[in-house]
Design goal:
The chain is mainly α and about 110 residues long. About 45% of the residues lie in helices and about 10% in strands. The chain contains 4 helices and 2 strands. A two-stranded parallel sheet has the order 1-2. Helix 1 crosses helix 2.
Length: about 110
């Protein structure tokens, strides 16, 4: 549980300093990288603890500029297309079936075009 008086960024930054972490490796989405950037910035500026981030973008939306292709994007595009082919094959066995294939993602449309 989190008290209303606690700042999660401050808590994480203090832990980085306590544990003497100098490099943070991130594998994740835009929000994961952004949140960790806030923590490291706080540690650097407010606590005087030198820490750097090494980020490896991994997101299905493939929306992390300037990275051309993120980890996970090709896999989800390939698997979605394969799934759709299987659903269409199933539909051929029963033409009265209604199929809704929803593709989600923050960038909206990248997976649909893939």
């Amino acid at each position: 549980l989190q008290s209303t008086h606690q700042n999660p960024i401050e808590i994480c930054a203090k832990q980085l300093k306590t544990d003497e972490v100098s490099v943070v490796h991130i594998i994740g989405s835009k929000s994961v990288c952004g949140n960790m950037h806030s923590v490291v910035k706080y540690a650097n500026e407010k606590l005087g603890h030198r820490c750097v981030i090494i980020g490896l973008p991994k997101t299905t939306e493939n929306d992390m500029f300037p990275v051309a292709q993120t980890l996970g994007s090709q896999t989800v595009a390939t698997q979605s297309a394969e799934y759709f082919c299987n659903v269409v094959a199933e539909h051929n066995a029963n033409p009265r079936m209604l199929i809704v294939h929803e593709i989600k993602g923050r960038a909206g449309g990248w997976l649909a075009t893939a």
